[in-house]
Amino acid sequence: MGEFTHSLDDKGRLTMPAKFREGLGQGFVLTRGLDRCLFAYPKREWETLEAKLKSLPMARADARAFMRFFFSGATECEFDRQGRILIPASLRSYASLERDCVIIGVSNRVELWAKESWESYFRQAQDSFAEIAEGLVDLGF
Fold it and tell me: pTM higher than 0.70, yes or no?
């Protein structure tokens, strides 16, 4: 959980908040996410997700397309001694990560957003948050 803002350095490295480093573990998987952000999964979560995706019907074009999109962008990452990760250029390009990034915790994954993209997404989503919640889950309020 949580939201943090950090900046990419000139080499494409991003310092991950200590809170998220603990949850991700030393080695984790980074891939293209939905909504033009990146998803980071601890290895155990990645393996669970991979097993679910492997069960998709390969005869369906949409299943094949999603698996290609998701797995082709995946890369194993490790933290350096300063708690930074090197984000490959292809993933930085996909998510429009240039300088300021927002790092958010979302249940079993961490998401990396370009600051401008996150702010735009958040503005649009916040207006319909209550309506979306009503349609999905009972939040107890």
Answer: yes
